[in-house]
Amino acid sequence: MKSIPCPWFSLRHTLESGQFFRWRRLGEGYEVIRRDRVFRVRQEGDRLRFEGADADFIRHFFALDHDLPAIHAALEGDPVLRDPLERYRGLRILRQDPWECVAAFLTSMASNIPRITRNVEDMAAAFGTPPAFPRPEQMGTETQLRALRLGFRARYLAAAAGLARDGRLDRLAGRPHEEVRAELMEIPGIAEKVADCVALFACGRLESFPVDTWVRKTMRRLYFRNRRATDLRIREFARRRFGPYAGYAQQVLFIAAREAGVRGSRPAARPA
How many angstroms separate the first and last alpha carbons of the chain? Predict the structure, then answer.
C-alpha cells in the first residue's frame, strides 16, 4: 500500500458522515467507489494508506488541501459549534462526482441513509459496468428504475440523466453558489436541499448550507429557541453566521443531530 500524510483528518468521520454512500468497511479500513474507480484506504494515525488510486486522486477526493485548522478557527467562535467541531475533528467535505452526487441525493427524498445506499448500489448493479456507477447515458428508463423500487424518484432520476448527458453538471465547478443552485434546480425533482447538497459535496461551494430534517430541528432548537423558522430563514441565518465555511458547520451539526437521534437523546456536550 502507498501512503501519504493526512494531518487534521479523520477517515471514519469523513466517510460515515452521510455525505457519500459508496463505501463499505473492509477489515481495518474501507473500500470506496467513486465513479469508475475502486480503491481501498485505511488510516494509521496521521498517515493514509491506500491502493487502487494515486496520491493526487486521494488528496483531491478527501480534500486534504482544505485548510482545516483555519476553517475550525473561523467557526470555533460560535459556542454551539465548539463541541461538535472537536468531537468530529478531521471531518472533511469530500469532492464527489457531480452526476453521482445528483443521483444519490435525488434518491434521498423521503428516505434514509441505509435505503439511499441500497438504491445507489442497485442502480450500479443494474446499469452500466458494475461496480462503477452508471453514467447519465447508461441510466435506465423510468420503468426500469421503478423496477428497482425507487418509486416516485424514478421519474426524476430518468429526467436528470437526460439533462446531464450534455455534460452540464461537469461545467458547474468554479461558478458562483447562486448560479450553481439555479442551474441544478432546473433539473426536475431538485429543490433547495438537494441543490445545496450537490453544490457543497460536488461543486466545492463550501458556503452552501443544506437544510434537511435533522439540521432543521437542530437549528431551530439551538439558534431559534425552538421557534418555527423556515428553511429559507435558516439558510440565510447560517450564511451570515458561518460565512464561507457554512457547509462545514452544517456537516458537524448534521452528524451530531443524527447520532443523537439514533441514540434517542439530545446531542451530548462531550463525546462519551
Answer: 33
Instruction: Give residue 135's pLDDT band: very low, low, confident or very high (50, 70, 90).
Output: very high
- Phi and psi for 93 in degrees, rounded to 5? -85, 115
Residue 272 is predicted with a pLDDT of 21
Name the nearest CA neighbour of 207 among 180, 185, 167, 168.
180
Closest CA to 159 of 177, 179, 184, 132: 184
Which domains, and CATH codes, for the chain? Answer: 2-65 (3.30.310.40), 68-93+206-272 (1.10.1670.10), 98-201 (1.10.340.30)
pTM for this predicted structure: 0.92
pLDDT in tens, 43-62: 999 999 999 999 999 999 99
Q: Tell me: the pLDDT tens digits for 177-191?
A: 999 999 999 999 999
pLDDT in tens, 18-42: 999 999 999 999 999 999 999 999 9
**Other CB atoms closer than 10 Å to residue 49's CB: what's the count?**
17
Give the C-alpha separation, 144 to 123, whole Å: 10
Helices 153-164, 98-106: inter-axial angle, 10-degree rounding: 160
Q: How far is residue 249's CA from residue 255's CA, in Å, rounded to a whole number?
A: 10
Alpha helices (H) along the chain: 11-15, 55-61, 68-75, 79-87, 98-106, 113-126, 142-146, 153-164, 177-184, 192-201, 213-223, 231-242, 246-263
